[in-house]
Amino acid sequence: MGPSYENIMLLLQEGFDLGWSVECRDCLARGHECVMTGYDTPFTYECRSPEYYVYGVFFDVTLVARFVLAPMVVFGFLIHKYRTTQKSTVTEMVVAKGKFVAVSNSSLVARRYSYADIVAMTDQFRDKIGRGRFGTVFKGKLPDGGLVAVKVLGDPIKLAGEGFVNEINVIARVHHNNVVRLLGVCSEGSHNVLVLDYMPNGSLDKYIASREEGTKFQPLSLEQLLQVALGTARGIRHLHEGCDSCILHMDIKSQNVLLDHGFVPKVTDFGLSKFHNKEGKDSFSMGTPRADLRYVAPEVLSNGLGDVLCRSDVYSFGMLLLEMVEGKWLAESKGKSSSQVYFPMWVYDHLSEGGDLELQNVTQLESAIARKLCVVGLWCIQKSVSQRPLMAKVVEMLETNGDHLQLPPNSFCFPEHVSAKDLQSDSSRQLLIPESVEPSS
Question: Which Gene3D superfamilies match (predicted)?
Fold first, then answer.
């Protein structure tokens, strides 16, 4: 505690002696700092140069780097190493003399299973839940109780070249909430199997209202269909723009949109998918497609199947949107037909004349949703490839208020690749409506 005010005044009145160190005088003359280090008699001093403080700061920084920054760097490196290791624990399958051989590939994240594992998880293939282009799908259960879809594929020689390899590579490299996830693979002898996420609600086609009555599946509401459409669009957008290479689906249809327990859509079945180099040309030629004709873009079938573009997927998605609304329309309509009308043309004619879709028992919001789905669908199926929006734009259109969406030009026509014979087939009937049908009152 310092001297009091009274003591200071007393010292000033009586006077006091001052003393200083000769060492400090010489220290100050050299431009250094003289610091008292001892208060005993006689006092002791230390002459400090500017470098003294620089060394002190350096010492402090060294301590911080050693005990704070170094552990952080080590911790970050361990996290990076762990993630890298996790991505490097799987293998890629390639064809060699008709069999599949494992090749190390750090970009895949699928687990390897033996065929005995597959038999066990499917309980000897007891529960068949579907059949796709590449094989049959069974319901399975992992040792931890998790449910999976087990897709048993045919002989690789019968899969149009490297179809199985393409499907594995595509699915394993894609990670998105709206794309089905590949959990594992099995290649043992003639047995080639994919283990996928299980979708308890099946495929979208079961929930789109149709002409047939008595189905056990409850059709989705228009609000639910909008969410399914939006999720599906986001999944396709990720395939086109969110991966290292542009991935074409080339088989987009309601059967290839699966629904999880919360009806979140997952795009699946990449049987016709091909990679595009983003820095290269935007198209390539493909073999004969086996996708449903009503979803296939005209340019895919023209000139010996011609070029396949990202916007060919957009066309297929547009037909899917129109199918959603067409199914809802047919479910609420009555009447008999004398001829067939192409549904997209019917929609365009009604909307361009200021009319609505004549849906019954729907709210104003549901009517607006139906219109938005149709308008976006019509944009997607434009005859001119360049007039179709990219999937990023499609997502944006589905997310915005449909009242602001303008009708596209009337530049689409009845698809020439659907013949008169196809008019009577189940594949084309989904997008045709009776000309004389009148909506029920």
Answer: Phosphorylase Kinase, domain 1, Transferase(Phosphotransferase) domain 1
